[in-house]
Design goal:
623 residues; alpha/beta; Rossmann fold; 20 helices
Length: 623
């Protein structure tokens, strides 16, 4: 690919022509409106039937700091973060230019606004510089200052359409869909796209060797944010109360719930909403409202991130001990404390599993895709009602705030909600003395009632203090101990209602096992395929719930060396497995990633292969 004004500079190596398999990274200024343009770029590729994975890497301030947007294109469907250097950098931010240049692979391309001269100290001899005067082009076509800022982004998307082969019709359809309610904005956006395309075509002899070709790999797939899927799942789960306090990166869970519940749940005959959305004064109030609403018979939930879970600890302990169903969606971010609130981690495992003081254990769910965010949110309400306890779903910023290719969502209209052991008024009439904390069936799960379902019976206390089987206050040690032992029986009952781990067996003779969960899934699967191509065969197990099923222990015992991949510093999942399954920690080796970026296949592959290479064990498998 040659610029028509390339000068005398020596030409760097040229990449081999690559179709539907490369990474494009955008370097922008936060608050410049670039995210909309970059999303348009990614969605157009998706509409061409090509698997794509967009990731927004943004700062915690509102405006002015560098922000990045990474788009991976891979026709084989590897959509975890690849890691390593990128083939094409789109630089629209002078602040980060030196850093951005360093991320381009040898022979790669650096696309920039050459309305201004490029600092010669930044030049690299081994990459291609593609200059287009974006600012000058924008100023010549648009007069309004704000429009100039916004349309500059659209113009570079149009230029990229020429350079890498995005179908213009795909871009046009996205503009039409985006501004369907504001049709006056459609013509100027299409004009900006066309301008960028035409200017790039005039400036460059031919497109880049990084090319897009229409495919058919996206049938039955959608692009969806995990947080939006959680919000929609709460609607389908029958949630009628959402109490929350704003915090990155979970706010859009509540916003998604509000959007979908207003669309899908019609008002009552007298024009009133049949749901309640309360922005509480803090996280403590939010979880308190949720517990109260659930005790009163509603399906209620809240969403937060790590700092909110910290504040909610005492109330979570109350719900555990009083045995009130509660659903909490924790979209994890980099900690501790405020940490890097716009970066991702899997670092709330320990605090969530044992939230509160004293002996507590909480059910955890670990979705890996937007579809699982939807499905497991619905399941969380059933599990909470069945087990009469808090259920915490642990997603993270990478899953929650980025759009991911996912299987289409589905719903069975015949599905009925599982409310668990709830006594009706007729049931209560047949009981001489109702024991709220009486274990009738031997599974640790007692029978509950809904307030107001009976005119006189069932008006009982869900006690957070020590009590006997009939909810009568008691400080007798034997009574307390008996109740705590029943709660432990209930804990051992829980796995029968939780999703099983997903096990992929590539060889019954494989000596290597890899355990992962949540958003580590895609990177692990790609890394495992890379290891297999090098003669290292590994089976893997993906954890979907805690308490663990017995199959997790069996998987560990069935392999000589087991790696646990997690995105935190302290190996929290490994600690949970060792504590709860009483597994010898020497059998487990951690692969830990915690710099705030999504984990990459490159990182997982290198960590495991280097560990195996330095091991004395003969773990090499052929085929």
């Amino acid at each position: 690919m040659n610029a028509k004004t390339s000068g005398q500079r020596a030409q760097p190596p040229v990449l081999d022509t690559t179709v539907n398999d490369f990474v494009v990274k955008f370097a922008n200024v936060n608050g410049s409106g670039s995210a909309s343009a970059n999303n348009m770029f990614a969605k157009a590729i998706f509409r061409m039937g090509i698997p794509v994975a967009p990731r927004n890497i943004f700062p915690s301030n509102i405006q002015g700091a560098p922000t990045w947007f990474e788009v991976r294109v891979n026709d084989q469907g590897y959509l975890g973060r690849r890691g390593g250097l990128v083939e094409l950098m789109v630089s629209v931010n002078p602040q980060s230019m030196a850093q951005d240049l360093a991320e381009v692979c040898t022979g790669g391309y650096f696309f920039y606004d050459n309305s201004y001269p490029l600092d010669f100290k930044l030049m690299r001899d081994d990459i291609h510089f593609i200059g287009l005067p974006l600012t000058d082009i924008t100023n010549s076509h648009f007069n309004d200052p704000r429009r100039r800022q916004l349309f500059k982004n659209i113009i570079y998307v149009g230029a990229l359409a020429y350079l890498i082969g995005i179908e213009f019709g795909a871009l046009q359809s996205i503009v039409e869909d985006t501004f369907a309610r504001k049709p006056k904005l459609i013509p100027p956006n299409i004009e900006a796209l066309q301008t960028g395309f035409d200017e790039a075509k005039k400036a460059f002899d031919n497109p880049l060797p990084l090319q897009l070709r229409r495919s058919n790999k996206n049938e039955g797939k959608v692009l969806l944010e995990g947080n939006a899927a959680c919000g929609l799942g709460a609607v389908y789960a029958g949630a009628t109360v959402c109490a929350w306090y704003p915090i990155t990166p979970s706010t859009s869970v509540a916003e998604g719930y509000e959007k979908y519940v207003r669309q899908l749940r019609p008002q009552s005959s007298d024009g009133k909403d049949r749901f309640a959305i309360i922005q509480a004064e803090d996280e403590l109030s939010a979880i308190g409202m949720v517990i109260g609403a659930n005790w009163n018979g509603a399906r209620a939930f809240t969403a937060t991130s790590g700092p909110g879970v910290s504040l909610m600890n005492e109330f979570l302990g109350l719900a555990y001990y009083a045995e009130v169903p509660t659903v909490l969606i924790d979209v994890q971010r980099t900690g501790p404390s405020t940490g890097m609130p716009t970066r991702t981690q899997q670092s709330d495992i320990t605090i969530s599993a044992y939230a509160s003081h004293g002996d507590t254990k909480h059910i955890l769910l670990f979705p890996a895709t937007p579809k699982e965010c939807f499905d497991l949110t619905v399941d969380a309400f059933d599990i909470a009602d069945r087990m009469q306890t808090p259920v915490i779903m642990l997603t993270d910023l990478e899953l929650g705030m980025n759009e991911h290719m996912s299987d289409e969502l589905s719903w069975d209209d015949q599905r009925e909600y599982d409310l668990g052991k709830v006594l009706s008024a007729q049931d209560l009439d047949q009981i001489d003395r109702y024991g709220r904390y009486l274990d009738v069936d031997g599974d640790g799960i007692t029978y509950r009632t809904i307030a107001g379902r009976h005119p006189s019976k069932g008006a009982y206390f869900n006690r957070g203090t020590s009590r006997d089987e009939y909810a009568v206050y008691s400080e007798r040690g034997d009574v307390y101990q008996r109740n705590m032992e029943r709660l432990q029986i209930k804990w051992r009952t829980a796995p029968r209602y939780l999703p099983q781990p997903v096990i992929t067996t590539r060889s019954d003779l494989a000596k290597i096992g890899i355990i992962h969960f949540g958003t580590s899934m895609d990177a692990c699967h790609e890394a495992i395929d890379q290891l297999a191509s090098e003669g290292l065969i590994a089976n893997d197990l993906r954890i979907k719930a805690f308490p663990f099923h017995d199959t997790v222990r069996e998987f560990i015992l069935g392999h000589e060396q087991v790696f646990i991949v997690e995105q935190n510093r302290d190996a929290q999942m490994k600690g949970l497995i060792v504590n709860e399954l009483e597994v010898d920690p020497k059998r487990l080796q951690s692969v830990l990633h915690y710099n705030g970026d999504p984990i990459s296949a490159h990182f997982v592959h290198d960590a495991i292969s280097s560990s195996i290479a330095s091991s004395d064990d003969d773990l090499l498998q052929q085929g």
